[in-house]
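Lab notes, practical 5.
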Amino acid sequence: MPACSAFGCAHRGGDGSITFHRQPNMACPVTRGSSSPALSFRIIAECNKSRARTSLMKLPHYTVETPAFMPVGTQGTMKGLLPQQVKDAGASLILGNTYHLGTRPGKENMEKLGGLHKFMGWNRALLTDSGGFQMVSLLELAEITEDGVKFRSPYDGSECLLTPEESIAIQNAIGGDIMMQLDDVVNVIETDYQRFELATHRTTRWLDRCMAANKNPSSQNLFPIVQGGLFPDLRQISLQQLIARDAPGYAIGGLSGGENKEKFWPVVLQCTEQLPQTKPRYCMGVGVAIDLVVCCAMGVDMFDCVYPTRTARFGCALVDHGQINLKSREFSGDLRPIDESCDCTTCRTYTRAYLNTIVTKEPVACHLLSVHNIAYQMRLMKQIRESIKGNRFEEFVREFIEAYYRGGECPKWVTDALAAVNIHLTNKKTCRNPEDKGGLLDEVWDEESKREELREERVTGLQSGFDRLNLAGYREAVLGEFDHSEELGRQEGFRQGFVANPEANPTLALACMEGQLIALSHRPGQGGAQSQRGEEQQLLKEVRDLMDLCYNTPPHPGEVGTAITESDSQQGCGGRFDSTRLRQLQRDINKLYLAHGWTLPSLP
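Output from the prediction step:
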């Protein structure tokens, strides 16, 4: 049976596909809305074909114009940026994380300090995530029961129980305009139906507990989170249960965790079709530009993601065709700004050539790229809003797609999702969806072409080890929640990019070992001394392999810290490596061990 409303009708075919039929004569400008004590939501205009709309969401601290993207300030800061810079970029709503702020500086300190607005100097709107996502991102540190989530702190190893009541108590202390319920989050690529079914119903039970625990309903809004994974029947159950609670707004959770985009967009559409038209809809964890445009077309109002600032730390800048990697040599003499149409301070002041010299090497580069990337996200959302107001959203989408894919093939999931809301990309070539689990941008994540580029490039120094991160590791770092994901991505990049190529300059072995050591240092309490010894033995094997590479004869037994003498160096370098650089290499290895407090072991 079709699901109909004043907005239009949606029909689901026998194969599960969704077709949305817009009422043909509906006017674009509207002024309907709903209100709650701490939120009023007024729709200003709607696209006359798709589900896209632009609205004003009045919150206690600020009025937010939607669709809106929220920069993520997990611990009360956007990494590399001052609050004023985020404001100058045009952000009206940012996100903070309950679990991290509840751990450090803690609920009591938050109350004493007057809440996060005052604590971080932010006078606009604020949304707080409940801590539920950490069930996925910190799964190895968490135990989930009906009471809540028992965490082992990644900071000091202490245990704490995050219950729905405690999550709300922390969020009340933080003082955000919008609070999120504690939900039972399951990794979206999990296949256990029963686990998702349990999580769906538990999320509703926890919502009831969160609603009862909220001490500030007149000044803080509580949003439920629709769960159910990629199972339409479970999503339907969650939608019905949560809509019955009549909340001021709703979130679509449990997505953007690596699922195939052909499965992602139908879930979003299923939710936006049924969530109340007069209340804001928030799709959690979405930040890539093409995803933002498609989800806006399906009727989503709010988004958040670490993507803009995290990708900046890898030296990447967002542009109309996706992103550019400023580490690439092609920009070493490019005197243009990142984007000539961007008016952020980075683009007004610095060239691509300058940024090329400092990205991933100087902390200021992260700052400069983060300024630009946040400005890009804000400008994109403004363009979407203005196109809806001007009744030209469909035209905007076509122009955006053309620029984004540079006139080439468009992924099938994009054309399918837009067609479901009556935007048909006629005469547009489509390509098959990427088979990788990440489901991200084709041109950005074309791993085979990047590997070929890596094989062709002669890498000659240690710093070059940071120039070519393995993209699978990079994807994990972008999608992950914490800094250690970046280190793990770097570790994987070194392993695949360098260890697999024994003909490379031996200095690269040091880069590999450094990446592994950094990664190990971000695994507190996991595996104990036995695991560490195993990792050390692997590193020592690579030291020996390096020595074999540099010398025609096996290395002498002894301590890693033993200096190489001139007589040693004369025994045979085979022209592979000079003794001075080899001695420096060993000194660097020693420094790495000492920096991590490890005993310098003997070579096997």
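Observations recorded by the TA: Residues 506 and 549 are 7 Å apart (CA to CA). The chain has a mean pLDDT of 76.
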